[in-house]
Amino acid sequence: MADSVALFTSIGLSEQKAKETLKNEALSSALKDAVVQAQKLLGSTNIDKGTGTLLYSMASRLRDTRRLAFLTEHIAKRKITTDLQLSAALDYVKSHPQDPMDQKAFETACGVGVVVTPEQIEDAVELIIRKHKQQLLAERYRFNMGILMGEARAALKWADGKMVKNEVDMQVLHHLGPKTEADLEKKPKAHNLLSLSFPHLIGEVKMEGKTLMEQLRGEALKFHKPGENYKTEGYVVTPNTMNLLKQHLEITGGQVRTRFPPEPNGILHIGHAKAINFNFGYAKANNGICFLRYDDTNPEKEEEKYFTAIKDMVEWLGYTPYAITHASDNFQCLYELAVELIRRGHAYICHQRGEELKGHNAPPSPWRDRPIEESLVLFERMKNGMFAEGEATLRMKMVMEDGKMDPVAYRIKYTPHHRSGDAWCIYPTYDYTHCLCDSIEHITHSLCTKEFQARRSSYFWLCNALDVYCPVQWEYGRLNLTYTVVSKRKIIKLVETGTVRDWDDPRLFTLTALRRRGFPPQAINNFCARVGVTVAQTTMEPHLLEACVREVLNDTAPRIMAVLEPLKVTITNLPTEVRIPDFPADETKGSHVVPFSKTIYIEQSDFREVMEKGYKRLTPDQSVGLRHAGYIISVQRVIKDGSGKVVELEVTCASSDSAEKPKAFIHWVSQPLKCEVRLYERLFLHKNPEDSAEVPGGFLSDINPNSLQVVESALVDRSVSKAKVFDKFQFERVGYFSVDPDSTADKMVFNRTVTLKEDPGKI
Question: Which positions fall inside the Glutaminyl-tRNA synthetase class Ib non-specific RNA-binding domain (predicted)?
Answer without folding.
Answer: 3-161, 164-246
